[in-house]
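Q: Hi! First time asking for a complex rather than a single chain. Here are the components, and I think there are two in total. Is that enough to go on?
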Amino acid sequence: MDLSVINPLLFIAGFLVAATPLIFAAMGELVVEKSGVLNLGVEGMMITGAICGFAVAVETGSPLLGFVAAAIGGALLSLLFAFLTQITLANQVASGLALTLFGLGISALLGQSYVGVKPPRLGDINFGPLTDIPVIGPILFTHDIILYLGIALVAATWAVLKFTRAGLILRAVGESHDAAHALGYKVVRIRTMAIMFGGACAGIGGAYISLIRVPQWTEGMTAGVGWIALALVVFASWKPWRLLLGAYLFGGITQLQLNLQGAGVAIPVEYLAMSPYVITIVVLVILSRDKSAAPASLGRNFHASS
Amino acid sequence: MIRLEKRPEPSRAVSLATPVLAVLATMFFGGLLFMILGKPPIQSILTIFWEPLFGEFAFYYRPQLLIKGAPLVLIAIGLSLGFKAGIWNIGAEGQYIMGALFGAGLGLAFYPLDAWYIFPLMVLAGAFGGWLWAMIPAFLKVRFGTNEILVSLMLVYVAEQFLASMSLGLLKNPEGFGFPGSRNLQQYDAAFNAELIEGSGMHWGVVAALIAVIFAYVLLTKHRLGFAIRVTGEAPRAAKFSGVNPMRLILFCMGMSGLLAGLAGMFEVAGPAGQVTIDFNVGYGFTAIIVAFLGRLHPIGILLAGGLMALTYIGGDIAQSNLGLPAAAIQVFQGMLLFFLLALDMFTNYRLRFGRSAEAV
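A: Yes, that's all I need. Here is the structure of the assembled complex.
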């Protein structure tokens, strides 16, 4: 075992990258849950975004177009969930599971001819002299634009939810859909938009894995990140900044276990690979006592007649 | 204008008809999908649903129906108990793996002893392994209120890593020339879950699945606990007033589904699969979720749905080798089925009304 092979600067820069898919997927789900909808299909939307983004990036040669396609792919898939839960009033848990199963299948189908292909690289933003600042430079200023967009997304979501009328309406729908309906807000329309936003974010998160983090396509490559994102929303008590913190924590753990695997620690690889999932459970246990922050209408379906 | 109107009572007839309609819709849209993939749609559908039952090689495929159907039914029966009561164990895949590891591990520990009691002990160990793995989310839910969906699912990934570790380490065949995977239990008579009747596909797992169906049917219709499950799902507050203990119900439903999933894994690894390998699990735990819903969470329905889903697996394999249909297409096909089912389910509780309603001015 040789821990000195772990470069602390690369490690920190690495965990910012590892956290980014989580930030996107969990941020999208946070908005969805704030509107009172529980979408368990994050994993399915992520993997669909991963392949849509990958395929388009390879075909067009443009990673950014890939990310756009990933957002569209994720949003389209989430539309299925919106139809099931908002129009046909199906059970949200079952519909979310269906979305995940379907997404895993459809992505495997779409991705058949892309196994082993190398995607075009998205270059880092050129910060000029900033990159040369010792310590801070390599950590903060050597990333691609999507990573910074992820942080901007957190700030924007926080501001919109807290300070704008749109955010207030979204929260009202999530807290009491009947009251919001009585005030004349279109509950179904607002929720559908929130679901599509969540789908688009999950799609981008998935594409970040297939285009930047790994970067290649393999079946089922999101490997539970979508589910960890769901746990992260609970961890964050539906608060954007806490979510960012949580994502960095999980990104750090993921990166650390990968680095330890590389350093040849005496712990078998499989047990290191388990650790993010085990820690997710532990964190869920510690934080699950307090449910007061959850939107009051979370998981309940709305029909104007009832 | 078309509106939805709530039915005063859920319709039983519609509830029974929706699975059939969902299957038909899936066949139609699945056919379209196959057409887009450049495969002959009608021939593909026939290959999946007709060939295994009545085709030229049906004698070979029919036993497969039992082999593939048994684990699905076994797992789905367990899941349906929880789903009925609003307890969501979606980590059956992990419990299936743990059941297989416990069962196979015990059997391999006795190798090469030849004794009658080894197989029964393996059955117990398999059931225990699955139960134990399901008790983790159940206990955390009861004790700390942790979300059982997320915990049970996280444990699937943990179990998969554990499986990898076991098949490369502790359970690896010492005479396997360094290849990953355990000894083949099919070559170890005392531990082999052999066919009960040669060439029928009937092994102990099939028997267990049938017993589970009967057990669940009796439990749900005749026993107090079954009543508690049903009333909790339909009206949780009413259940509390009628003296149902929700904690015990969670422990029972999760434990039962884990136990059955563990059994399924154990019968599979000791029989048709034969070996603990890294990728010995093929997703039965997830497909069983579809089976449970397709069967309307009813034991008899699940039996039928398990058969149908087994058919899509076998037919899918045939279509893969005969028509070059990608394996993922079958996965999409199965996912589609769940979608249609959930969407059509609306008509159980609501009906469509055309034109304006009288009271709405």
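A: The domain at 3-287 of chain A is CATH 1.10.3470 (ABC transporter involved in vitamin B12 uptake, BtuC). Let me know if you'd like any chain examined more closely.
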